[in-house]
Predict the structure.
Amino acid sequence: MTLPINNAYIGTQSSRKWQDSCDQYGIISRALHWVTAALVILQFSIVLAWRGTGKNTFTLFLDSIGPHGSLGLLILIVTLIRLGWTWLNRKQRPPQSQGIGGKLARLVHAAFYALLLFLPVFALLRQYGEGYEIRLYGMTVLPEAERNITWMIAPADLLHSPLSWLLGGLMIGHIAMALIHRFCFKDKILARMTG
């Protein structure tokens, strides 16, 4: 005996994999999360390698994979896409935890988004204000400007480095809390983002 197949149901189930649900994040949200994580980790790895060893064959190779400015611009683009996708899925995302832990998690996530937006914007403003063109892997996105536009340079000079280290600290805390949820609390918080 064969059962009839409801194609409308299969299509609905397939599209639900891509979108967020109350149980877990969809494929697009998960992909954007992990792409962001990979870009930020690569960015920090390159910076730490340069600071630790200076200019050498290895750091030049890393820089060819991920030039600092291009990675920053990619992080900004992915973050803007994430914000748009989050907005579209805002009514069907997994619920946030209640209580002080939930409030703290929401605050940390808001800080992540703010840093992932402002850090690249500050850096790109500084680069443009210093008279350099904005490039994405060899393609000119914005041609050179006049040199020394102080109001563009000042925010990055003041904030880019300390906010970058704040982002690194939040990232370490985020990873630690995900592992604590998985191995100590044994809940499904991490599974919602890993699938």
Observations:
- The longest strand covers residues 139-142.
